[in-house]
Predict the structure of Oxidoreductase.
Amino acid sequence: MRIPVVVSKIIQETPHVKRFTLKPQLDQSLPRFHPGAHILTYLHSGSECFVRSYSLTNCPSHDYYEIAILKKVRGSGGSSCWHEHVKRGQTLTISYPRNFLHPDLSAKHHVFYAGGIGITPFLSMMRWCRKRGASFELHYSAKTKHDCAFYEYINREHPDQTTFYFTREGERIDPGLVKQHRIGTHLYICGPESFQNEIKTAALHTGYPKGSVHLESFVQLHSDGFNNPFTARLEEKIINVNQEDTLLDALNKEGAGIPFSCRMGQCGTCEVAVKKGDIVHRDSFLTEEERCSRMLPCVSRGEGVIEISMK
């Protein structure tokens, strides 16, 4: 189910980052969300529909949502469409909030590692920590202060907990920092894939339990841009998957009853066998060998006609 919203405000945070305020249409309330949550946005441009995930940056609220979007120079068009074509007063639809990255209540200390626009989920999480008196710190890497989204806000609200690193000034987050955090620390990492992997690897090699290292990985979803419709054959059924639906949703609408959990290509719960056809894999779960005969329909798609099996 989708929620109709209207763009009520647009703020240029940095030369390449815009913040959009989304309010409900018809004076309705928005679902309340938890810190670290994100939404899917469905933005139509001509015959295309760009489906993108964005973290909610404001405090949990029924009245409005805020998202911040980096315009990618070599992106697939979604961020450019938001920056160049979305205007105040425009309507669109969004998903209900989803929460796969949130403060762990068992942590004795929370450490946030942000790379570039990866700062967005941590804004609400740091507010949550401060409101509850929870111990936390932020390590935030950006090219320059000029390119550092929310720099003034963070420097004003969390100066004692934050360390900035500006790479064009030769500053860099040392993955070895993870060794300095006290026992009971939970790490939260969001940024480019290489950034996330470097810190995660250092943490696991240091001895952090896997459950204490949290990554924001929704960037994988729809990462290659426009979704082409395709057809899936499951036993005697022929299922047409449009550009906005996932294969998982299309299958279950037809009564397939495929189990699922994360809906982000991370857990493998919805895994199905591929008997014929070409697959666009977008998961972070299957090995390259497994991808020859398996897929995760929550994020991956087919090209043309594919044949699948639940076995």
Summary: The radius of gyration is 20 Å. Helices lie at 78-85, 120-132, 151-157, 193-206, 247-253.
